[in-house]
Amino acid sequence: GDVEKYTKGVKNLIDTKFSRFNAKVKKGQQEILDALQDATVKIQVLFAYTGKKLSTHNEASINDLIDELNDNSDLVKFNDFNIDKAHKGLVVGLNSEPINENVIISNWGYIDEPYKSYYGQINGAALGELWLKYGRRLFIENIRSFLGTSEVNDEIITTIKTEPANFIYFNNGITILCESIKKKPISGSDKSLGAFECQGMSIVNGAQTLGSIGSLSEITTIDLSNIKVFVKFISLEGSPEGFGHRITIATNTQNKVDKKDFVSLNAEQERIKVDLKLEGIDYHFKRSDEKILPDETNYLLEEVAFSLASLWDDVTLTTTVKKASGKLWEDVQNRPYIDLFNNSISALKIIKAVKIYRFVTNKMKQLSYDADGRQRSIYLYGNTFVSHILFQRIPKQYLADSSIGFDNYFNTELETKTDECLVELENLIETNYPEAMIGFIFRNYTKCRDLKALMT
Question: Could you give the angle at the alpha carbon of 362 between the alpha carbons of 292 and 25, nearest 5°?
């Protein structure tokens, strides 16, 4: 009974039915809403208890919940935190002895001043052995541990499996702090291979690299010896107090290159920027330290991409905005990017798309303030889908590369059409998906295709 109440509570939380929760949950309402609206967010359902295993009925209840939440995606992960895991975690936590290991570095070099540091390559199999021996203890000083399944880690593993020889070129490597480092006399000054004694090891950057390699270390069919990883060992001997902490922060907060940044190299973006400038609009598609607020004279890459995705005839791109928006610009040479940004997309079409997308988004955001539960969730999560349906219903001549009739339609009919669309959508969802969580409906390709078929 308690487990069933728990699973129902998870559903209510994701459906934003805050009226059913206590003051503690309501206090974090905005933070929860912000998280649920972020397409990159993953959810962990963690069940902590003092037994060793869930009963068959309880396990079935949890599995039903996870299956319903995921619905052909990997959004939600279940963490069965039983007494055995708690005990194991306690033992590992108490074992605070420093990690002392001998390592072999190939093609090594060194920096002698002001603080000793060695760098070079380490065999993937050797890193796998380190993981098997110490696990997450290696990351005690890191700002985060190994994150398990993620987009970045999936790509690391794919490279290991498909392009092992190129791994060292594609990967940023690992930074390891040590209380002390001593080179062993064997092999002398030969830089092709060196043996080192490392005391007090801690990986402060590269946890995802090592964790991904470690996750493959028990799979006997994968030969990790073909993987070479660039490593940097920094000795803290003689360094001022807090120096290791500064290294940890610096190596994890240098400007990260996001896939979205590669869009700036695409010629279509420059062409669009010029065309929009001729219409009096500044188009911002490169990341900078300047804070840009979108308005009538300032467009951002994200909202232009989301607007064009809504305009696209196939609802798949609309769903992608909510499910994994980064895929829209993941590869500027292939779809879906080239569907959105190509030489047939005019400045006027972008202006119309953005104008409608903004109107729908702002209207639904305002409506959400006075709504609750599932209706509120529709207003929060459904803006891209509603925009898509409206684009399908607007007479095509109004969306053509001319201004004839568009302004009149926008000013006199769009609001009424939006209201009608929302009423229709709410009724269809309650009729066809009365138990489904709203946020996940708009991330589900099949459900969105079915809803569109009923509305167009």
Answer: 95
